[in-house]
Write a structure and sequence with these properties.
176 residues; 5 helices; alpha/beta; 51% helix
Length: 176
């Protein structure tokens, strides 16, 4: 049976910079495709900034054709106004791939760090280092892009675990 590569986009939500990273998964092998950030101009109204993020993210999805998406759940420890704006940007990160017909998974920052680094409280620099180790061809130009690749790696690892668990359940059910 020939396996097809699964193309995954990881998204690190942000109102100013929304990181994205695309990888391909074939079995247990990960391959870097592309990464970057979608930016919004601070001088624009919130609605226009959200439009910029939405259009930019849809462009990346259209150009790179992922078939699954994963988004980091944001943890905000700042003022309520900033949290609300970040939440709206996160909404864009969720709805853009959904509108493109992709299934969207969400992962906490601690789970992403635990999956990629082995420590749920790892520093951003450790995450970026492990992303470069796991995807040697990746050269993320920003922390947002490195974080987005970490989201995609997490999804790749956890989807494989879920698939294995599902197949074990199927085997157990069919042998009864």
């Amino acid at each position: 049976m020939d396996l097809a590569a699964i193309r995954i986009i990881g998204i690190d939500p942000g109102l100013r910079n929304m990181g994205w990273g695309v990888i391909e998964v074939l079995g247990s092998r990960l391959a870097f495709v592309a990464c970057g950030s979608v930016h919004s101009r601070v001088s624009l109204s919130l609605a226009e900034r959200l439009r910029q993020l939405h259009e930019g993210l849809l462009g990346v999805i259209s150009d790179l054709a992922p078939i699954e998406a994963a988004v980091e759940e944001t943890f905000v420890n700042c003022d309520p106004q900033s949290a609300l704006k970040l939440g709206q940007a996160r909404g864009i990160a969720l709805v853009a791939p959904a509108l493109a017909g992709l299934p969207v998974a969400e992962y906490s920052a601690n789970l992403i760090k635990k999956t990629v680094v082995g420590n749920g409280h790892a520093e951003k620099a450790q995450v970026a280092l492990m992303v470069r180790f796991l995807l040697p061809k990746a050269e993320p130009e920003s922390p947002d892009a490195a974080d987005a690749l970490a989201v995609a790696i997490t999804h790749a690892q956890l989807r494989a675990s879920r698939a294995m668990a599902k197949s074990l359940m199927t085997v157990r059910t069919s042998t009864r």
